[in-house]
């Protein structure tokens, strides 16, 4: 049930009675809440495809690779997840038949993840659903989306994201 007030505005008001940094607290709390809301929406859209957003991202990364395969270590770096997380993501994708694991032909220590035809098909179907739903951001206009991306770029850059 929706509240009749914005709880983040109220938290900011209370925060300001005690501490500094109200604009930063308000912005980060809003950002984190939106992240929760959007991720829940994306996961709901992907659930009928047997995917989570993390698994979808891994499949998209493999789709974008020139040969449809990448070492797990490189996938973890590009998706910015811990090696244990990428191992778990790939294990679930293997179980569902969307990915196969195979030894790296030139590095005996590395394992490649390769997308299957079933993986390619599910990426296409899931992407159509995500695009159709505006990736959970359907309440925003295209100019606002561009502005949001521009506003977040310095935070990503200063954190070493690129």
Q: Could you explain the architecture of this structure?
A:
The protein has helices spanning about 5-15, 20-45, 55-65, 70-80, 85-95, 115-130, 140-160; strands at about 70, 100-105, 110-115. It is mainly alpha-helical and about 160 residues long. It has one domain (about 5-160): Winged helix-like DNA-binding domain superfamily/Winged helix DNA-binding domain (Arc Repressor Mutant, subunit A, Orthogonal Bundle). The longest helix is centred in the N-terminal third of the chain and has 25 residues, at about 20-45. The protein is elongated. About 15% of the residues are buried. The mean pLDDT is about 95.
CATH architecture term: Orthogonal Bundle
> Major sheet, described briefly?
3 strands, antiparallel
Shape: elongated
Q: Can you tell me the residue ranges where pLDDT is under 50 for at least 5 consecutive residues?
A: none
- Write down the secondary-structure element order: HHHEHHEEHH
Gap from first CA to last CA:
39 Å
CATH class annotation: Mainly Alpha
Mean pLDDT: 96
Number of domains: 1
Give the CATH topology: Arc Repressor Mutant, subunit A
- In spatial order, strands of the major sheet run 1-3-2
Number of contiguous helices: 7
CATH superfamily: Winged helix-like DNA-binding domain superfamily/Winged helix DNA-binding domain
- Based on secondary structure, the structural category is mainly alpha
Number of DSSP E strands: 3
Radius of gyration: 19 Å
Summarize the structure.
This protein is mainly α and 162 residues long.
Task: Lay out the secondary structure.
Elements: H1 7-16, H2 22-46, H3 53-64, E1 69-71, H4 72-79, H5 83-95, E2 99-103, E3 111-115, H6 117-132, H7 142-158
Antiparallel strand pairs: 1-3, 2-3
Helix pairs in contact: 1-2, 3-5, 3-6, 4-5
């Amino acid at each position: 049930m929706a509240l009749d007030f914005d709880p983040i505005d109220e938290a900011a008001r209370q925060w300001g009675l005690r501490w500094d940094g109200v604009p930063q607290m308000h912005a980060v709390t809003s950002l984190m809440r939106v992240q929760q809301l959007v991720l829940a929406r994306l996961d709901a859209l992907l659930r009928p495809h047997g995917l989570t957003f993390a698994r979808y991202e891994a499949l998209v990364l493999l789709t974008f690779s020139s040969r449809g395969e990448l070492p797990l270590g490189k996938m973890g770096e590009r998706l910015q997840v811990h090696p244990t997380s990428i191992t778990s993501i790939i294990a679930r994708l293997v179980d569902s038949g969307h990915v196969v694991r195979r030894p790296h032909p030139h590095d005996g220590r590395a394992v490649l993840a390769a997308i299957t035809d079933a993986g390619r098909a599910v990426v296409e179907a899931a992407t159509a659903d995500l695009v159709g739903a505006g990736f959970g951001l359907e309440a925003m206009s295209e100019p606002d989306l561009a502005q949001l991306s521009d506003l977040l770029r310095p935070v990503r850059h200063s954190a070493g994201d690129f």
